[in-house]
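Progress report, Aim 2. The chain analyzed during this reporting quarter is listed below.
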Amino acid sequence: MTSANRTQVVCVRESTLGVTPNTPRMRKMRITGESLSFAPTYVDSEEIRDDRMLGDPIKTNQVSQGGINFELSYPDDLSPLSEVIMSAFENVWVNTPQFFNDGTADSVITDAGTVASTYAVNAGGTAVKVGHLVQAKGFGQAANNQIFRASASTATTVVGATGLVAEVAPPGTASLKVVGFAGASGDITALADGLGSTALDFTTLGLAVGQAVKVGGSAAGTQFAFLISAGTKARAAAYARVTGIAANKLTLDNLPSGWATDAGTGKTIWVFFGDQIKNGVTKNSLSIEKGFLAQPVPSYITNLGMCANTFSIDATSGDKIKGSVAFTGMGGGISTTTLDAAPDAVTTGVVMAANSNVGRLGVNQIQLGAPNWAKGFTLQINNNLRSRDAVDSDAPVDIADGECTVTGKLTTYFGSKDEVEAFYNGTPRAINTRVTKNGQTLFFQIPRAVYRGGGNPQATAKNTDVMADFDWQASQDVATNAHVILDRLPYVE
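Predicted structure tokens for the chain:
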């Protein structure tokens, strides 16, 4: 017998479409259900027989396809969910500088604290710039796990930490990751439309137009005075979006309520940002293997060349944030031999929920609130994939992509005419939603969308609220050259 509770789903990114890498490093996927399928297709003979019988069906092709359902958690870099997002967006993540021993001690990060204030890396240290905030974690010495402002770097060093304890062989869990930037004391100021500086050069930090940032740390000395006086909830909501980058000015929109000018006197202001991905034109395929581990001799079914055709996220009040992905693939097969006898374990990030973790659902840079509170938000990417067949192959030989269609639904209470009027007039809207849990944030953006349907508030029964549902569709945003953008901020305070 086979039990669903003993079904394992693992995946690996392919370098060549439809070809599993040699000795692949498979990673376990977190799923709530799957409909993955690899099956042959058949036709019947058209021959006329006087015995009214049929010959054997004639195999013509093989089809690999199907879907996976999941609950949203933080997509750590290289995790299956991160890889699925790459496939759905047809692009790669633009990551902040990072160094990770990835299971092998003393490999990428080779020392901490032997030289004062310094972490040693095998290469690439100059990607960390003066002013970057760096998160060090996973080290064996507790003192070496900290957030610090980089004061210098070379190809093999990252400098700026305090109180380090010598650790000559950092463990396989050790990592360094740029999570933001900070100014020297009194250097960063709050302007009416963003941030200013005197010494820090914003153009050196790897920021991009359209990027989400979170202003202020948890300590009083790392946040503006007006954020402190606004209270904990307001400080947690101090997110904004980059619209312009100059040496000494970072122009922002989507500013939080109560934003004010502030000289930042005596403050070392912290600003957090992270990795970003937006829709592109590069197919990213996966080899996916299902293992039925409850069988006396487990069977393993492999799907090759799996590209995300559709990808959806559903954030509905009162529920977990759910997702699904439907793949179009190429070949496959079944075996009692697994691709990887010891796949990486599942990630441990907790599942995110709509109410307690969604910090914002905004339209046109303003958070939806009284009287048009948001009730739900959905997002779907459709890559309009199609398989290409060849007469001399029993499996598809290629997968072609079509238009990247990004659609969704926004549900609000009908408190005023604003959004209905935008629907009537075809007025473009910028839509974004932010989800934060355990100090990690996902920021979904639709920079330019038009309501194409819904928008019909109705009194359906007594003792009910009148709701307004809007079906939206994304179009190209010139400033970001995107339909959809996702920022993942690995650490915020």
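The longest helix spans residues 80-89. Residues 57-91+309-489 form one domain. These observations will guide the mutagenesis work planned for the next reporting period.
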